[in-house]
Amino acid sequence: MNLRKNKKKQTSQKIRFRRTKKLFLLSSIKKQHQFIRESISGIFRISQPTEELEYKDLKIRGINLQVESRIIKRLSFMIRLCLLLAALDYLYMLYLFIQGYWLAALLTASILLAIIAHAFKYHFWRYQLYKKKLGCSFKEWLKDLITFKDN
User: Fold this and answer.
1) Are residues 71 and 132 in the same domain?
2) Verdict on whether the full-model pTM lies above 0.70
3) Same structural domain for residues 93 and 34?
């Protein structure tokens, strides 16, 4: 008799635990956290290039000297535009700091960093076309940028 009461208690506890599990949607919470983890890891994953391009491969892809010079002009324009926007953003950031809008000034500072990053990206691409070396390393670019060598 005592054994039957224990069995009833065990089964009722199991049913309650299942109901609690369904009530709190633990499986959904677990799936949500997996999705968030995969999304964040995808943001910081660096994609590897599928193929290595060299300067001589540009002719195969239909880019001749005229197209290359147009690309260089566009990249130069984008560099100047980014630097102009960066200067304007910097002045606006200083104005916000002076006025005491600290949070807005920090936001404009982050925008300033993004604009400067784009300017460096366009400069790196233009540098690669000037040097006629598409596999140029960051170290070579930085060395030439600092020493102002023009070969």
Assistant:
1) yes
2) no
3) no
